[in-house]
Amino acid sequence: MKYQKTNRKNEENRILEVVNRYKLLLCHQIKSGNSFNHEGLLFDYNAGYDAFWELSSRKTLNEEEREIIRINFALSSLSQKEREIIWKEFFFVEDKFWWMRKYNRSTFYRLRAKSIIDFSSLIK
Predict the structure, then answer these.
(1) Of the candidates 4, 34, 49, 52, which lies 20 to 30 Å from 100 by C-alpha distance?
(2) Do 76 and 41 contact (CB within 8 A), yes or no?
(3) Nearest Cα residue to 123 out of 13, 44, 1, 3
(4) pTM (predicted TM-score)
(5) What is the pLDDT of residues 11-69, one digit of tens each?
């Protein structure tokens, strides 16, 4: 049990590192004046691996843009519930208890744990 909590905390820290890098990369893209028009991939639930591969293999993309696309693809690969949990718990923390309107406590923490594991496996 203690190992699971430690492992989950490590996964959460890894996600936070990715989120901070993602935000930094987006800010850098905006400040440098680069027109990055691939954010739509994040909410395009039908964009599969082919769309990701086609976007990320373009020679005109720099490493920062490729990293942003990779993270967007990882998010779009999650189920809708998992994506919402990862997004609201790590990327856009507005209301700490947002989940109380949708889930009971045990359901939320079960889904949150699964979301963390699934997203972590995609960003490794």
Answers:
(1) 4
(2) yes
(3) 13
(4) 0.76
(5) 999 999 999 999 998 888 878 776 555 554 444 555 565 666 666 666 667 788 888 88
Query: Residue type at 104?
Result: N
Contact by Cβ (8 Å): 36, 65: yes
Work out the angle between the directed axes of helices 105-123 and 2-31 (0-180°, nearest 10): 60
Cα angle for residues 102, 108, 110 (degrees, 5° grid): 150
Considering only CA atoms, which of 69, 71, 64 is closest in space to residue 30? 64
Measured over all CA atoms, what is the biggest interatomic distance in the chain, rounded to whole angstroms?
Answer: 48
d(CA 106, CA 41): 31
- What is the residue whose two structure tokens read 């967007």? 72
Give the gyration radius of the chain's Cα atoms: 15
Angle at alpha carbon of residue 79, lines to 101 and 44, rounded to 5° = 105
